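Tip: read the tokens left to right.
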């Protein structure tokens, strides 16, 4: 008899340990209340959400120990209605978290019905949703601006300006500029969405960085000449090859050089240097341009971010170039940073891994 009791006790204790281990491992917060709304149990994820210890609140009424009105009402409703309920609630302390709470009535075996709640932290999900909504709103706005202008000029031309030899070419030129801008915007958006959805394939191979820079410098030479700025490429002949996708590496340089020229002053200089280090080559694209204010600097890699300067000086751009650069550099296992002295110039550094088989 004594042995059987002993075995039973051991079995119960084992089950209890298993149950606690399972509840402790859950990412969701779990809170159990008895029929009078007293806390029976709070798992570690729940402890973290509420910033309290299970042991210190056990036995206390939920309202007294945790003082969360919407949750309290949810528990009340569940206990009275005897039906499972799901609601979204916001916790403000110890940190602001958005929770999806699923509460169900449970019979703990004592003839009384308590409530069991699973608290699912959906803060990150909501944040991502709001980033996406903001992105759609921004993209629509950016697309609408040039279209509104094109529509306006087309209407003016149709209403008679077409016959006005003084203005018709000028209006058509504006339409052409705005159409070019729209094309660039759509190309950048398509690029960014393909990169972010990981729909593009990278063909990593040993690449001569010097060759890529020289190629891109040729492409931007007309821009540099028009400003005018001097392009100064300083990549030594014996620079080891890097592990890169040739085309994407070109796109990184294209965006950085384009900015370094666009935001430069007439007579300025753009210097590209590449220095090999431990497993990486560090590239610097330095300009002698208008620079970036300290408060804007952390934001330049954000999608659609353009400083006041680029808006007010009507410098063409989409605000997507650096967001694309950041994604591409990170896909190469590198990182990109920006430094600037307003009025004197900026320097963008990025790293790119060395190819293994040189
Ligand atoms: P954009 O198409 O406008 O060039 P980017 O994403 O490439 O978009 O750059 C975002 C913004 O960061 C630019 O509009 C500009 O305000 C600022 N910026 C980027 N590069 C430079 C630079 N070399 N010098 C000064 N400002 C820069």
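Filled-in amino acids:
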């Amino acid at each position: 008899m004594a042995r059987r009791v002993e075995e039973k006790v051991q079995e119960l204790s084992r089950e209890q340990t298993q149950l606690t281990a399972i509840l402790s491992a859950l990412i969701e917060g779990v809170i159990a209340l008895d029929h009078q709304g007293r806390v029976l149990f709070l798992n570690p994820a729940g402890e973290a959400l509420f910033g309290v210890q299970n042991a210190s609140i056990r036995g206390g009424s939920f309202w007294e120990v945790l003082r969360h009105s919407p949750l309290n009402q949810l528990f009340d409703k569940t206990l009275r209605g005897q039906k499972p309920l799901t609601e979204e609630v916001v916790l403000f302390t110890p940190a602001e978290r958005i929770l999806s709470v699923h509460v169900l009535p449970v019979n703990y075996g004592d003839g009384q019905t308590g409530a069991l709640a699973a608290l699912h932290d959906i803060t990150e999900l909501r944040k991502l949703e709001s980033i996406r909504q903001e992105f759609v709103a921004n993209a629509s706005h950016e697309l609408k601006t040039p279209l509104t202008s094109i529509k306006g000029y087309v209407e003016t031309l149709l209403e008679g300006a077409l016959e006005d030899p003084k203005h018709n070419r000028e209006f058509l030129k504006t339409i052409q500029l705005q159409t070019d801008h729209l094309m660039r915007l759509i190309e950048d958006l398509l690029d960014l969405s393909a990169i972010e959805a990981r729909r593009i394939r990278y063909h990593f191979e040993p690449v001569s960085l010097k060759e890529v820079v020289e190629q891109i410098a040729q492409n931007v030479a007309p821009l540099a000449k028009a400003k005018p700025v001097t392009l100064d490429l300083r990549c030594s002949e014996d620079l080891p090859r890097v592990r890169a996708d040739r085309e994407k590496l070109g796109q990184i340089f294209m965006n950085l050089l384009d900015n370094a020229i666009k935001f430069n002053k007439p007579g300025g200089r753009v210097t590209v240097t590449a220095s090999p280090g431990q497993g990486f080559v560090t590239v610097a694209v330095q300009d002698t341009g208008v620079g970036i204010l300290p408060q804007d600097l952390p934001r330049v890699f954000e999608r659609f971010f353009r400083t006041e300067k680029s808006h007010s000086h009507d410098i063409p751009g989409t605000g997507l170039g650096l967001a694309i650069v950041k994604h591409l550099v990170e896909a190469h296992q590198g990182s990109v940073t920006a430094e600037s002295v307003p009025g004197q110039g900026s320097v963008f550094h990025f790293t790119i891994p060395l190819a293994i088989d040189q």
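The two ends are 78 Å apart (CA to CA). The pocket of adenosine-5'-diphosphate is lined by residues 255, 259-260, 263, 287, 289-292, 300, 305-307, 309-310, 317-323, 346 (CB under 6 Å).
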